[in-house]
């Protein structure tokens, strides 16, 4: 089994795709006006509009309704990502500015335009880097 993607349902797909394109530096691939994917390293972030939900099961997903999942991105320079996102005006809610965590990562925690928690992190210690090894 392979874990291949996370799909986020949104009421404003253009806004959310724009945010993640800027945050990751990756251009989204649009399949339709209601579905886009950003392939980032070994995973894919899929973003679908609310119009895609009835294709699976009407009412099964609600946009901007998550308070339990954190999307995480390993980045080369978390402080650079922080500055770039602040300059872009796309971030309204910084939960935690870049902070060095006890486990060796420098982490930035913010909410995307739909309110989902997003963690951008840069491993600083040998042990933190080792946790990323396959």
Short note summarizing the structure:
The protein has 134 residues and is of the alpha/beta class.
Structural notes for this entry:
By secondary structure, the chain is an alpha/beta fold. The chain is built from four helices and eight strands. The protein has helices at 13-24, 53-56, 78-88, 126-132, and strands at residues 5-10, 29-32, 35-40, 43-49, 70-74, 93-100, 105-111, 117-123. The strands form two sheets. It has a four-stranded mixed sheet, covered by helices on one side. The protein has a four-stranded mixed sheet with strand order 5-8-7-6. A hairpin with a 5-residue loop joins strand 7 (105-111) and strand 8 (117-123). The longest helix is centred in the N-terminal third of the chain and has 12 residues, at 13-24. The chain starts with a strand and ends with a helix. The model has no long low-confidence stretch (mean pLDDT 94).
Break the fold down into its secondary structure elements and pairings.
Layout: E1 5-10, H1 13-24, E2 29-32, E3 35-40, E4 43-49, H2 53-56, E5 70-74, H3 78-88, E6 93-100, E7 105-111, E8 117-123, H4 126-132
Unreliable stretches covering 5 or more consecutive residues: none
Report mean pLDDT, rounded to a whole number: 94
Q: Give the total of beta strands.
A: 8
- In whole angstroms, how far apart are the ends? 16 Å
Q: Structural class from helices and strands? A: alpha/beta
Which band does the percent of strand residues land in? 35-45%
**What shape does the CA trace take?**
globular
Please give the largest β-sheet. Answer: 4 strands, mixed
Q: How are the strands ordered across the major sheet?
A: 1-4-3-2
**Topology order in helix (H) and strand (E) letters:** EHEEEHEHEEEH
């Amino acid at each position: 089994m392979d874990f291949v993607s996370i799909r986020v349902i949104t009421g404003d797909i253009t806004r959310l795709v724009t945010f993640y394109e800027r945050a990751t530096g990756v251009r989204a691939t649009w399949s339709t006006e209601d579905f886009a994917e950003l392939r980032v390293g070994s995973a894919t972030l899929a973003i679908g509009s609310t119009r895609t939900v009835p294709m699976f099961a009407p009412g099964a997903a609600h946009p901007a309704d998550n308070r339990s999942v954190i999307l995480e991105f390993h980045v080369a320079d978390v402080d650079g990502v922080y500055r770039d996102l602040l300059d872009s005006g796309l971030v309204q809610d910084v939960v935690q500015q870049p902070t060095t965590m006890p486990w060796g990562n420098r982490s930035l925690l913010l909410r995307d335009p739909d309110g989902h928690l997003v963690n951008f992190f840069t491993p600083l210690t040998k042990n933190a880097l080792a946790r990323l090894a396959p």
